[in-house]
Known about the structure:
The model is unreliable at 81-95 (pLDDT under 50). The chain has 4 helices and 12 strands, in the order E-E-E-E-E-E-E-H-H-H-H-E-E-E-E-E. It has helices at residues 118-125, 145-154, 162-169, 187-190; strands at residues 2-8, 14-22, 36-46, 52-63, 77-78, 99-104, 107-112, 222-228, 236-239, 255-258, 267-268, 272-273. The protein is α+β, with helices and mostly antiparallel strands. It has a 5-stranded antiparallel β-sheet with strand order 2-1-3-4-5, with no helix packed on it. It has a 4-stranded mixed β-sheet with strand order 10-9-8-11.
Amino acid sequence: SFISVNVTNSSGASVASGGPWACTAGFGTIAAVPVGNNYTFTVNGMNSGGTTLYQGQQSGVNLVAGNTNDIGTIAVNYVGAGTGTGTGTGTATGTHAGMVFVAQGSGGFYMDTTEVTQEAYQRVVGSNPSYFTGCPTCPVEQVTWYEADTYCRSVGKRLPKEAEWEYAATSGGTGQTYAGTSDVTLLPQYAWYVDNSGNTTHPVGQKLPNGLGLYDMTGNVYEWTDSWWDTTNTYRVFRGGSWLDVAGNLRAAYRDYAGPVFSYGSIGFRCSQYPPP
Length: 277
């Protein structure tokens, strides 16, 4: 296992980095960090394949000229696959917290139980781009595909492939019309959409989950996927329908697309993760 460190300033721009260092050796020296205040040090614990398993941050660090600055102990959280403990930057354990395992054939993948919330995005990225603010547990929206992809990678996950998303939405390929039901009269129990949303997003997890325990796969906000819409790799696919859509757009088979640099108040995302081999 290895440790790397990234240093960002108060504006979120990277100013220095260090590593990777072997966990048995601990931190090395991070040189050439400008003197200043309110830096954030982000620690990533990685396996030999470069996958981030642990992550922690220390904010509000002030660096004084002429000093060898000790940033102290940084607590880390487990964000990778499986369970485990780590040393050198602290210890942590985890079992895919907040995720559901979606069995598929002889394998499968993990999927976030809910859409990524505004408070989760703010905690990792340091900002909240959402149009519907003032609701920390509402899904983050107005994120570009690039921003969604960066977030997932930052926490050791990834955006789901379009086929994975649909398989998970239909409770494991059951052929459901919507995520959780095929009966349109029951749709209000599973989804926020134009008929019941009041033209806004809502806190995640308030409606019924689908058969796998996944919430809001239908409605609330569309969700970016990792798949391209076209063969020229110009547009990315998003799925699931949103608070402003009619029932037809909430069908699990419904597809839509946008350029990866575009953001809308109706598009958010959730992350997925492969299990260890």
